[in-house]
Amino acid sequence: MEPARFLNALKGLGTACVTLNELVNTWNVSLLAALDEIAPRRLLRPHRNRSPWYTNELRTMKQAQKQLEHRWRQKPNKVSLSAFKAFRRSYESAVKDAKKSYNSSLIASARSHPAQVFKIVRALTSPAPLVQNPATTVLTAEAFQKFFTDKITVLRQELPPTADTLSELETLWPLSGPIFDRFTPLDKEDVARILAVAKPTTCSLDPCPSWLVKSCLEGLLDPLSNIINGSLEQGVFPDILKEARVRPLLKKPSLDPMTLANYRPVSNLPFLGKMIERAVLGQLQQFLDDTAGLDPFQSGFRPGHGTETVLVAITDELRRQSDSGGSALLVLLDLTAAFDTVDYDLMIHRLAMSGVRGQALDWFNSFLRNRSQCVEYMDQVSDRSPLLCGVPQGAILSPLLFNIYVRPLASLVRSFGLDCYQYADDTQLLLRLEPGATSIPENFTLCLEALSNWLHASRLKVNPAKTEILWHGRSTGLTHLLPTFDGAVLSPSPTVKSLGVVLDLQLTMEAQVAAASKQVFFHLRQVRQLAPYLSDEALATVIHATVTSRLDYCNALYVGLPMSTTRKLCIVQNAAARLLTRTPMKCHITPVLQHLHWLPTDYRGLYKMLVLTFKTLYGQGPSYLRDRLSFSHHRRSQRPSQRDLLYVPGPREVHLERTRRRAFSVSAPALWNALPPYMRAMRELGPFTLALKTWLFTRAFNLF
């Protein structure tokens, strides 16, 4: 499908339109007509090529091999047998080379997208799922539609508006403060930039593949700019783009595929609507950044923030509290379908309280309301079902809108003296208990009660059965006074899973290391099956996507751990290095790691910690980590060795050696101060990371 032919076939995009919906409709009709002209629809028989690497040359070779085999069986002799065996070896070698070439090209096409590499590896190593016959299966698109819709309807019925809900909606908007009341129209360069960074995801409602739109940027830039700017200037989101197509996705391959509850809905939205959203996202994000419109402890989908920064902050608090002789209580809230139960009236009100007014607020009101969805299952499409609540799943704006929606939650928790860390709908509360405490303070009970009331008023459903507690420190004597939340008793667990990391009572990280090692070894065994059919470059890409990335996930938490704990991670890394280089077990691994320029696992954690420290110091990290670091009084010293040093808490402030090695607020300054002066003086992230890796590499392998 050639983009040039597609552009030549486009007609009618320059037609004058009165309304925004007419503009969008003309876009869809014109693109669909052009696609039908260059690639007419025709009936295709479903055919799955289970061996796409099998070429005509291999087919010819296989026929020749059968002929040689037949000749040998007809007249057995050494000459015919030798000819048959020699040709069979050539054929097997050609098959292996064809597989290697095909698989390597697949991996190369997704080299910069680890998620795509992971999908390719899973498709190549896992057996294909059985395709159900629509005539025999009892599951239908209508059944899925009813199940997904009824689930949210039941949740909404369990969460009726309360007096607090009505009281909040009656609160007057502040008259002072910064206001964001209209969007700035985009020029063509801005539209081109938005289209360039957009992922080419295609929905069945799109008139043509999204990659084709990206390829025809020059010819489509004017009508695309008119649609985007028309939406921004009129404060309206096109009705045509409000429909979603939902595909049921089995949660785990091991689950029963005939049970509706084992599926999760995956929503797909039109590509054009996402382009409009992206234009709005940039301006709304800029306004919130300029006005501190988001909670500083909200880390979900924000630049410089992430799951690792949240966990580093939480573990630092827990370690410092334990070091002082006290204990701490970590509560991990579990919200049920939080994105799907957002109330539209409350969402608009909280946007207005954040400073979004006028035409901009009208746009968000139009964006949220009057939406619908259909379910696609096999060849079936269900009837449309209206969506009466929730931020649109799969929408670019939804994560940011949800962050605005739950912003009051963190302020409420902190008003009771607790810390609150959020990553989108993942909320964690931290209560500090002083040494010698014999009971849970009253403010914690009051906080849980107020939190339950706020969640009900915000029409968010908490699941007490899945809400977990980790009691870190000296908890003896308190366990008989367990807190209750929403009518359920919260019992401490020996381990909890926070943002994909397993935390244990003493923060030894042994459970996390064991879980990570087990998972990585599983993927390593899959990669080992593919290794004979991959080039060296493709094998390296696969190992980095499926093995190294998992070893590096939140590895700043591994800094300071004893070798007995991290040994499993070292074994996994060594196994990956041996697989990549085809090194036998009898050979020493250190030269192999050095040849690959791989830092050992302990040094990888140090690298992550120091990069995080650099980002935190110079405005690229979260403020809640920046508050834990401070420059010493020697920062402006005339002696280069004493410049840009951080203050390291002394033994009187931090008593335990393990806290000094592992807590971010202590270990990060100590590691930073050990850097050479020229590295501490750097202010750009790119040169710093290059210099840091070289510096750590020389120390890891004694290359002084």
TrEMBL record:
Domain Reverse transcriptase: 230-503
InterPro entries, per the entry: DNA/RNA_pol_sf, RT_dom
Protein name, UniProt field: Reverse transcriptase domain-containing protein
One Pfam family named in its UniProt record: RVT_1
Domain of life assignment: Eukaryota
